[in-house]
Amino acid sequence: MENGLISVDRWAKGSSAYFLTHLHSDHTIGLSSSWSYAPLFCSRLTAKLLPFKFPDFDLSLVRILDTGSWHTLSPSPAFPATLHVFAIDACHCPGSIMLVFRGEFGCRLYTGDFRWEPSCEKARKAREMLVDVVKDDVVDVVYLDNTYSNPIYDFPSRQLAANRIIDIISSHPDHDIIIGINTLGKEDLLLQIARALKIKIWVWPERLQTMHLLGFHDIFTTNTTLTRVRAVPQYSFSIDTLEALNTMRPTIGIMPSALPWVKKSLQKGELLSGSFLTSRFKRGRMSENGVQIDKQIGNTGPLDKFHEYIYSVPYSDHSNFAEIEDFIRLVHPATLKGIVSSSSCYIEPMYYFGRLCRVNQPIRRQLHNMHKRVEAVSPKISFGGDNVKSERNKGKNLKGKFLGVRVSKLSIYRRRQRGVKIVEDNSLDQD
DNA sequence: GCGATCAGTT
DNA sequence: CACAACTGATCGC
Fold first, then answer.
1. Distance from residue A383's CA to nucleotide B5's C1', rounded to whole Å
2. How does residue A349 score in pLDDT terms, banded at 50, 70 and 90?
3. Which residues does strand B reach (CB under 7 angstroms)?
4. d(Cα A363, Cα A178) in Å, to the nearest integer?
């Protein structure tokens, strides 16, 4: 397999520069404390958090990409090309960025994981920044966070979901509250809860350290006697946990996640015809006045009750279908590639968004026609993880058949790694 | 011990 | 069932 000049969220040897969009573990497969192949570019906040995840990481490799300005890598023995890169807040988790690259290969945008809601001020600013960056150029390729690039995925803004969660908590004034979170992300949700209910929030000790690194000093605590709201690792959040807790004190759990809600719709057989939840949230989104709608949503019945003690609220850090569509319309790239391909609901992004691309239109470069396209002798860039099924998996599947075990077709495609390889058109390396 | 991969969990 | 994100077991070195 070819290695490119640069890699994004991909940590195999062979590139001259590596880019990290954010610190979730599905984007750091292959990265470790002892990794040292080449300089690593990331946001300031990611750089700050990096040693916490990888304690002995060689920090002399780290290069900060502040958002809002171009950074240039000039030719040198270590980096044999000129590359311009621009980082923009992806609003996915603290430190997350999307990246615009300009080089011999043209202009390419790697979204990383992102959520840009129209109602989010930070996202609006990021969006303006992107408009400014690409306004005089054509984006040749968008590498897209296509996690939910299927119209069946429709869920409300994080603001609406947060309000729903706050309502659930305030309607259980005598209950302890457990909220499942991961090692990074959903801080805004917890902040809003703390602010709205004027309470502190318990987190586990490592998470408190993260909160301190993120600059939150007075909101979180590791002292259970100071608050009835606790954010716990999602991994330790289960029906059993909640049932055990309820033998001690009345406790409810809240799962801030988009998917159980999809599941619920599926169970009701309403998914394909448009679920009641979908239409409910659509009404909310179409309204001009978000605040009033918040209350409407918040006051609706226990539609998100998942279990006797558990509520599931569709709080997602990935863009929903409508937001992705809006994003593609905005960027209007020549073509698109998904960075996730393991989903059973996966549909080639061009299927839905191809009409928003320029593939069938004349591509006219304007100001930044920096170069002619050189016939690539070899791929110049290789981004992200590859999403090609491995020989090993194929073998495993065959074995399954041989033993008469019914192996899910999906298992062949199971890939946890995120990201994509970027190579020159028509020069895809074969595995 | 380390990294890579697989299996399994919410 | 699925998803993203994570933990833990296992294998090879």
1. 21
2. confident
3. A 11-12, 29-30, 32-35, 180, 234-235, 237-240, 255, 390, 392-393, 396, 416
4. 52
